[in-house]
Amino acid sequence: MDPITQGAFGAVFAQLHGRKKDIAKAGVIGALAGMAPDLDILIRSMNDPLLALEYHRHFTHSLLFIPFGGLIVSLVLHPLLGRRWGLSFLQTLLWCIIGYATHALLDACTSYGTQLLWPLTNTRFSWDIISVIDPLVTVPILVLTILAARRKARGYVFLAIAWLVLYFGFAAYLHERALAEGVKLAESRGLEVVRLEAKPSFANIVVWKIITETKDTFYVDAIKPFGDTPNVWEGQSSKKLDIDRDLPWLDKSSQQAKDIERFRWFSMDYIALDKNNPNRVADIRYSLLPQEIQPLWGIDLSPDATPEDHIVYYNDRGDSRGAVKRLWQMIWE
């Protein structure tokens, strides 16, 4: 999730431990430790644009790395803050480990994919419960964390955790409802489903994106899983990427071909050729509107590239203002 949310999570759980008079200190150290795993964004290459994708949510986000990550952060924060505030190293270390531990578990609640069990497996876990940005997660936790620190009252911490339990529990319930409605929609179309997933749309848990995969096609729809007759916005479909059919010119031994497979792994095999660009492979998991296949990112290939050339990674936000306006309308329909 975004750094503010990660920091708020690290802070609130760190505030559960230690003396009440140190709640503000626990919040600061827990917040910094909670954001620390995302320093993996510094791992990148000028020549290989996919390196950053491979290493984001990689070893720094592994559950097995938590003790080491917490220790590294404490070795930095104790000299900078802990000693100045009269804290023991063990107290700083405890808050750092707690803050660090919240990060990967929170990320896994989104749809992006997190390597929780690296190096045992490079599987990307995504529980699809909340969006990567959700103000109803961030704002209440941030406010309650600050109140706890200012008033040295742990009651606000308990309120924050209670809110998280309720909100995430409700999100998990809606996720199951959306999946069930997605299955009904697929059955009404007579589809032979290979895989079906429900993902929260941008910044909310009201409207869900349903991705239905058959043998050769992806179908994307939006569902609002409330009431006896949920709202359904039937969307678009796209053929799954077939390299022989879609990119017949591609040298299978080239770096571009290898990069497609790396991107396939990152995108959990949700890749298709862009209908508007015959040399662009897109990740269909994410779009501004949940019922559309207008990917936010993907890779560009070139028939003129040398065998050693990498792909070009792109981001495309399109008409974000118009999409947010339409999504807001869908939430309230």
What gross morphology would you assign? globular
Any idea how many domains?
A: 3
Cα distance, first to last residue? 27 Å
Order of strands side by side in the largest beta sheet?
A: 1-2-3-4
Low-confidence stretches: none
The number of helical runs is 10
Q: Kindly estimate the percentage of residues that lie in beta strands according to DSSP.
A: 5-15%
- Find the count of extended strands (DSSP E, 2+ residues): 8
Overall structural class, as computed from helix and strand content, comes to alpha+beta
Organism: Leucothrix arctica
Pfam families: YdjM (PF04307)
GO molecular function: hydrolase activity
Keywords: Hydrolase, Membrane, Transmembrane, Transmembrane helix
Quick structural gist:
GO terms for molecular function: hydrolase activity. With 333 residues, the protein is α+β, with helices and mostly antiparallel strands.
Give a written overview of the molecule:
With 333 residues, the chain is α+β, with helices and mostly antiparallel strands. It has three domains: 3-153, no CATH class; 172-237; 240-324, no CATH class. It has ten helices and eight strands. The protein has helices spanning 3-14, 23-35, 51-55, 66-82, 89-108, 135-151, 155-189, 243-246, 255-266, 320-332, and strands spanning 195-200, 208-213, 217-224, 231-239, 271-273, 280-283, 297-300, 312-315. The strands form two sheets. A four-stranded antiparallel beta sheet has the order 1-2-3-4, with helices on one face. A four-stranded antiparallel beta sheet has the order 5-6-7-8, with helices on one face. A hairpin with a 6-residue loop joins β5 and β6. The longest helix is centred in the middle third of the chain and has 35 residues, at 155-189. It is globular. The mean pLDDT is 97.
